[in-house]
Specification:
The protein has 373 residues and is an all-beta fold. The protein has 1 helix and 26 strands. Strands 20-21-22-23-1-2-3-26-25-24 form a 10-stranded mixed β-sheet, with no helix packed on it. Strands 4-5-6-7 form a 4-stranded antiparallel β-sheet, with no helix packed on it. β4 and β5 form a beta hairpin. The radius of gyration is 20 Å and the shape is globular. Mean pLDDT is 93; it is low at 1-9 and 11-21.
Length: 373
Amino acid sequence: MKASAAGLVGTLAIGVGLAANAQAVMETSVGSFHIVPVAEGLEEPWAIGFLTDGAFLITEREGLLKLFAAPGTDPVLVTGLPDLFRDGQGGLLDVMFPRDFATSRELWFSFSQPMPGGGGTAVGRAVLSLDGTQLQDFTTVFAMPHGSSEGRHFGSRLVEALDGSIFVTVGDRGTGPLGMQAQEPWRAEGKIIHLNRDGTPATELSGALPGVWSMGHRNPQGATLDLEGRLLTVEHGAMGGDELNAPEAGKNYGWPIASFGLNYNGDTIGLGTSLPGTEPPLHYWDPSIAPSGLLVYSGKLIPDWRGDILFGSLNSDFLGRLDPDAPAPTGFVEERLAGPETARVRDVVEAPDGAIWFLSVGNGTAYRLAPAE
C-alpha cells in the first residue's frame, strides 16, 4: 500500500495564485492535497454524515443538528432532538446513516441522556422529514442502566454492521477505581454494545448485560468497519496507552487491568501491558494522542491508501494514517498530516466521491481533503 515512513509528517502551504483562488495545500507521502473548508462557524462539532442528494448533517455537542444543502451554504437547524445531559464531554454526539437511508429516511444518534444519578450514553433513532427540517418519531432504543454525575468518557460512536445490526461504543464514564466497571460484564460502562435494527440486543453473552459485545474499553471515540466488514475502534488511554482494536464478541480488551499507559499520578495501571484473557491492541500510542473518528479508506480517489486507517487527534492536532500492510514496533507505520486546519480533529469520514472530510473542533470548521488536480 504505499510509500510512507514511520512518523512521516505532512506540511501545509498556501497555493500560489490570486488571493480569491488561494487554497491550502497539504504535502503527503502520495503527493499534494487541497484542503477546502466546507462548513464554518461550528461550536464543538462532533460528527458528520452525508445525505443522498449532496447535503450533509453535522452534530454539535451542545445540542444542535445542522443541515447543509451544499458546501459553503448556511445551515438549517433540524428540530426534534431529545433532552440531553450537557456536562463536560456529554451532549449530542454521533449521527449514523443506515445504508437504506434513501428509502427509510432513518437516522441513528448517540447522545448523553439525563437519568437518575446524572447522565449516561444513550442511542435513538428517528425519521428525517422530506424537507430535512425535522426529526420525526424520535425513539430512544438503548440507554445505560446506570447514570453517573461524571461528565466524561461517553464513547458514543455508532457503526452499522454488514448484516444491518448496530454497534455502539460506550466509555467507562470515568467512574469507580480506575474505571473497573469496564471489567464488569453486567454493566454497560467500557463496552461495545450490539443492537438489532429494532433496538433489541443482537448479542447475548452468558452473565453479561444483554447487548454486550466486548468489554475492557476506556473511551472509544472512533469506530468503523474495515473493507472486509470487521469492526475497528480507537480509544483513549490515560497517560499513554491509546489503542486501535478490532473488538470480537465475548473478548476483553484489558482496561484497566492491562494497558500500555500510566495512571495520571505516574503509577502503573493494572498488571502491566498484557494479561492472560485480554486482547492486545492492533496499534497503540505512547504518549497519548487522544484519537477520535475512524475511517478505513476505500481507495476511490487515492488508490495507494486503499484499506488504510485514518483518524483524528484531539490533543496533538493532526490527521493520522496507519498502513496495516507496514508493521512497526507499536503496530503499524503511521503518517501524520498536520497544519493549521487540523486543530483538534474530532471526526473523519469518506464522502461519496472519495474525498476525505474531517471536523476541526479547534477551528470550528469542516474541511474537504482531496488530491490536487
